[in-house]
Design a protein that fits this description.
β2 and β3 form a beta hairpin. The protein contains one helix and nine strands; from the N terminus they run βββββββαββ. The relative contact order is 0.28. The chain is elongated. The protein has one domain. The chain is mainly beta and 144 residues long. The termini are close together.
């Protein structure tokens, strides 16, 4: 026995959404990916069959960037024993930690230490999408 659904109750859908994934992290390099989906809704009349094809045109862009992050001041720390009693407290300039980085990554101006950050961004984006509907047929639903 086959029972047809009421007219207009079936839908096919696609949608625009995004997700963010870290694909690879190695050393000072990190790759991230953003995925986009296209969203539309198509009403399918009861007792019918259709074929839907979604054609999407994408454009790809790529650019490089450079920025810097500044640090100034001191870093403090305290050592405790198992009984939570202070063993030693210290303060050191942030520059003594940052100076371990390669020279080409560090710039000092007005007592502020800047770390250079470089990156490259590649991305694709949807510029157009078409929905092609083919083979609209009425199907016969038989009750046995």
């Amino acid at each position: 026995m086959s029972i047809p659904l009421p007219n207009g109750i079936l839908e096919a859908g696609i949608g625009i959404s995004k997700s963010f994934t870290i694909n690879h992290t190695k050393g000072n390099s990190e790759e991230k990916q953003v995925e986009w989906d296209v969203e539309d809704s198509i009403q399918v009349p009861g007792k019918s069959t259709i074929t839907v094809e979604i054609k999407t045109k994408e454009k790809q862009s790529e650019f490089e960037f450079q920025t810097r992050v500044g640090f100034k001041g001191n870093v403090g720390g305290t050592f405790y024993n198992k009984n939570q009693q202070i063993i030693r407290t210290f303060t050191i300039p942030i520059s003594s930690i940052i100076n371990d980085l390669p020279d080409d990554m560090i710039v000092t101006e007005d007592n502020i230490i800047y770390i250079k950050i470089k990156g490259r961004i590649k991305y694709k984006y949807d510029i157009e999408h078409d929905i092609v509907i083919n083979n609209l047929k009425q199907s016969v639903c038989a009750i046995l």
